[in-house]
Design brief:
Blueprint: H1 17-30, H2 42-49, H3 53-66, E1 69-72, E2 76-79, H4 84-108, H5 111-129, H6 133-151, H7 154-164, H8 176-194, H9 198-225
Antiparallel strand pairs: 1-2
Helix pairs in contact: 1-3, 2-3, 4-6, 4-7, 4-8, 4-9, 5-6, 5-8, 6-8, 8-9
Length: 230
């Protein structure tokens, strides 16, 4: 193994319960079940997730730091204002950050790392053909994670991870047409990485993120316009 470690062997730390709470509440917001100005009932969140109050409070504090919620003195947590323009701005940030990360990855990626990405891409192709949505979601995540690790720019990767949290869990994997288009986009990105062509990789990644962003913005607008579900 290379001194800095093969991408195949790198792992993220185990997720905390507070992260699960934050994911859950983000999804409620992006799906329109919680909207700007709504107070968040901590006991309801705890009941839905089967957790004690402590990780719920910690998760809401995480969301406060990300700008999803606000804390009103003596009143509790409330959903922060979020508009379609805000989501569009986040999509723009995703495009720029992901483009820069893949550009840097193209300059330094090695044969071992490319081998890992090719295997992920092949597994994605098989999962898309079999319409196995849970597996597709994980593989899409792995593809981008490996690229971000290869870029060796952890602060840029962290900023990208914050902006991508606005997409509901399993959102993209639930759209068959997107899964096929995404697999095609990934093939183009991988080809550019294998050629160490940073400019081409950046252009391909930004197109990919733009396409995903359009889907997300359409979904958010529809969720905000629809009646709430209980």
């Amino acid at each position: 193994m290379k001194e800095d470690g093969s991408l195949a062997l790198r792992r993220y730390p185990r997720r905390q319960l507070s992260d699960e709470v934050a994911d859950h509440v983000r999804e409620l917001i992006m799906r329109g079940r919680l909207r700007s100005g709504d107070f968040i009932r901590q006991e309801r969140i705890a009941g839905e997730l089967g957790l004690s109050p402590t990780p719920v409070r910690e998760g809401l504090r995480l969301l406060r730091g990300e700008g999803f919620v606000e804390l009103l003195p003596r009143r509790g947590f409330v959903v922060a204002p979020l508009s379609a323009n805000d989501v569009r701005d986040l999509v723009t940030a995703q495009e720029l950050l992901a483009g820069e990360l893949v550009y840097r990855a193209a300059q330094r990626i090695g044969d071992d790392d490319l081998r890992v990405l090719r295997q992920v891409q092949e597994d994605t192709r098989k999962a898309v053909a079999g319409e196995y949505s849970p597996g597709i979601e994980r593989l899409h995540h792995d593809f981008h994670r490996h690229i971000n690790l290869a870029a060796a720019a952890p602060r840029l990767a962290w900023m990208l991870s914050i902006s991508t949290k606005f997409a509901p869990r399993r959102f993209f994997a639930s759209i068959p047409a997107w899964n096929m288009a995404s697999a095609k986009d990934h093939a183009e990105i991988l080809e550019a990485l294998a050629s160490h062509d940073g400019h081409r990789a950046r252009a391909a990644m930004m197109r990919h993120m733009e396409n995903a962003g359009e889907l997300l913005m359409t979904h958010f607008a529809a969720a905000q316009a629809s009646d709430r579900t209980p």
